[in-house]
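Chapter review. Work through the record for 4-hydroxythreonine-4-phosphate dehydrogenase PdxA before attempting the end-of-chapter questions.
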Amino acid sequence: AMLLACDQLKVIHVTTHVSLREALDLITEEKVYSRIKLMHYGLIKLGISEPRIGVAGLNPHAGDEGLFGDEEIKSIRPAVQRARIEGYNVEGPVPPDTLFPKALGKYYDGCVAMYHDQGHIPFKMAGFAWDEEKQSMQSVIGVNITLGLPIIRTSVDHGTAFDIAGKGLASDAALLDAIEYAIKIYEN
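C-alpha cells for 4-hydroxythreonine-4-phosphate dehydrogenase PdxA:
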C-alpha cells in the first residue's frame, strides 16, 4: 500500500491508480480495515509509538448518515469500529475537508484516504510548489513509502520527472527525504 509521508502529513490510500468509478467498487470494509492496520504499522515504523489515525469519508459531509450515499455506513464505519475494538486509536469516517486540516494541525498522526486524489491533493498542497521562474512544479517535500512488503521501499513522490532531466531544474530534496525515511523505518 502507498503511504505518502512528509513532516506535516501522512496519508495512506484505500485505492490508488484506478478510475473514480472503479474505486467506488473497491472501497470495502475489509480493504478500509487493512489500510487502517497498515497505517498504524507504518506510523510505528516512523517512530510514532501511539498513532492517532483519522479515516476520511467518501461522500460530502462523510455521507451525512446516508443522505449523500451509504459507503460510510456499509464499509467505512464498520472498518473503523472493528479497528477500535482491536485497540487502534482511530476515528472516522471524518469529512475530508475537516480531516486533512486537523492532520496538518497534528490532531491526527496519519490519514486514510479512500481514493487517489482525495489523499494526493492535500499532500501535494503541503509539499509541492509551482516555480513561476522555472515554469515547473517543485517537489519541496514528500516521500512515497510502500507498506506491506518484506523490504523497506521508499521513493520520491514526484515520479521520474523525465521532462526536466538534464535541464538543471531538479532538486535533490525529495530524494534525501526518501533516504532519511528509509533509515527511520530501518531503525524502528
